[in-house]
Amino acid sequence: MSWIVTNWRLKLLALVLSLGLLGAVAFSENPLTLSSARVKINYAGSGLPSDLVLVNPPPSVAVPVLGVKDAIANLVAGSIVVTPNLAHLKVGSNTVSVSPKVLVPGVTLQSDTLQLSLTVEHLMTARFAVDIRIPNLSAGVSVDTEHTFAVCGDTLAVCQVQVTAPASFLKGLDAYVLYTNSIGPNATVDSNNYPVHFEQNGRPLDFSSLANYPLPTVNHANVGVHIRTLGGTESSPVPLRVSTTGSLACGYQLAAVVIQPTPIVQVTGPAKQVSALTVITLAPVDLTGLSSGTTVTRAVSTGDPALKADPTSVKIAVTVSQAFTCQPAASPSPGAGTSPGG
Question: In the CATH scheme, what architecture does the domain 233-322 have?
Answer without folding.
Answer: Beta Complex (2.170)
